[in-house]
Design goal:
By secondary structure, the chain is an alpha/beta fold. The protein contains 13 helices and 15 strands. The structure holds glyoxylic acid and manganese (II) ion (3 copies). One manganese (II) ion binds at residues 78, 89-90, 123, 189, 351.
């Protein structure tokens, strides 16, 4: 696999969903850009003679071999992005899967089991708020009735979004028979830190995913005039929010976790009005569940204390929570050895692989990211490293599919 060959296929996907102003990618689940990515996937699969199927939740598969066969080796990732995200988070795993199939075919490999490249729906949760939507629905980790009612910021429900895309919203839900036919799931992903740079390795293997989640913090106060309301008379939810953000930062640093407030909504969002309400989303992560629980509890208590002082009211509700994932140790060590003692590392980022790992022996490969940046346009991987990732993935798929 030459870097130029990786680039040639990569280039064909790159323009889809790119911000015309050059500020990253906007590929939200079931948006026009996402549908264009899905059409790209179908065309690429068909050009390779792979059979394309869709499950009840709109996750796509390109099959080499019988889709109804047992012990399938499935690889893949997601097309969707965070707002103004990078190009690699997600799509790299799908493009690498297609190129790995090409390599195996050229090597004359005949898989003893079905092999599939998968594209999972709405992994980032940027549109409907729940991360790993497609894989959670597939595994039964998310109630389809609740999922149908999720709405995007424009008020469009998930049910409406999937029906616009030609899917039956009533059919959303778990598919245990499908999962039972999978022997392995392998997700290749751009690294979202600099551990591989520090270790001088192009490819690594995941050991674990930190437990993490999203909490919706609603702070209600009293809307009022910015010019005429005495400072002492205010019940300003923005003040409570500001304090809560600082408290989250402090608690995360003290406890060795990560806390981020990357999204807020303010009502009525007027320069000259004390706000009536603020909604803030806390993203919290930690190396272990106890630390994560302690972190979120501490932030909640401190937000509530501050609300008492500000005369505001606060509620904190979990929106999507993911427990710790320890990837299959035997598989992990086997892949690391197969790849010449590749570094083994944990990550604080969530992945469909984490959701699937409770159902199928699962592993992840990471490709070095020289910037270490992710969920932002600066996310990067060189074509040389991406090509090395394809070779590593092909080697791993060959080993698993030919046993
Ligand atoms: C998924 O990309 C996450 O936010 O960790
Ligand atoms: Mn991501
Ligand atoms: Mn991802
Ligand atoms: Mn992410």
């Amino acid at each position: 696999m030459t870097p130029a060959r990786f680039r040639a296929l990569w280039q064909t996907l790159l323009p889809i969903g790119q911000d015309p102003a050059g500020d990253g990618w906007l590929r939200y689940g079931w948006s026009e850009a996402d549908l264009a990515c899905r059409a790209w996937f179908t065309a690429q699969a068909q050009a390779r003679g792979l059979q394309v199927t869709t499950d009840r939740n709109g996750n796509l598969y390109a099959w080499w071999g019988d889709p109804a066969g047992d012990g399938a080796v499935v690889t893949g990732s997601h097309f969707d992005s965070v707002p103004h995200g990078g190009a690699y988070d997600g799509p790299l795993g799908i493009v690498s899967g297609l190129l790995a199939v090409d390599l195996l075919a050229e090597r004359g490999v005949t898989p003893h089991r079905p092999l599939a490249v998968a594209a999972f729906a709405e992994e980032e949760g940027s549109r409907f708020g729940v991360a790993c939507l497609g894989s959670r629905l597939l595994t039964g980790a998310l109630d389809p009735a609740a999922a149908r009612k999720l709405t995007d910021p424009a008020g469009v429900s998930l049910a409406d979004a999937v029906s616009t895309a030609g899917l039956d919203p009533a059919a959303l839900g778990p598919e245990p028979e499908l999962l039972a036919r999978w022997g392995y799931f392998i997700e290749l992903h751009v690294e979202q830190g600099r551990a591989l740079v520090d270790r001088g390795a192009a490819v690594g293997v995941a050991s674990a995913i930190w437990p993490h989640g999203r909490w919706r913090i609603e702070i209600t106060g009293e809307g009022n005039h910015a010019g005429t309301t005495a400072m002492a008379d205010r019940h300003d939810p923005m003040l409570t929010t500001a304090y809560t953000v600082l408290a989250a930062n402090k608690e995360a640093r003290l406890r060795g976790g990560h806390a981020t407030v990357g999204r807020i909504e303010v009502a009525p969002n007027a320069t000259n009005a004390v706000p009536a309400r603020v909604t803030a989303w806390l993203d919290a992560r930690a190396p272990d569940q106890q630390t994560l629980t302690g972190l979120v509890e501490a932030v909640t208590v401190r937000a509530q204390d501050r609300a008492d002082r500000d005369g505001t009211a606060v509620t904190v509700a979990a929106e999507s929570v993911s427990p710790v994932v320890d990837f299959d140790v035997t598989l992990r060590d086997r892949l690391a050895a197969r790849l010449g003692d590749a570094p083994v590392l944990p990550t604080g980022a969530g992945h469909d692989a984490g959701v699937l790992s409770g159902h199928v022996p699962t592993a992840m490969l990471f490709v070095r990211n020289p910037t270490g940046v992710s969920h932002a346009p600066g996310e990067h991987a060189t074509d040389d490293d991406c090509a090395a990732g394809v070779v590593a993935l092909a080697d791993v798929l060959a080993e698993l599919a030919c046993q």
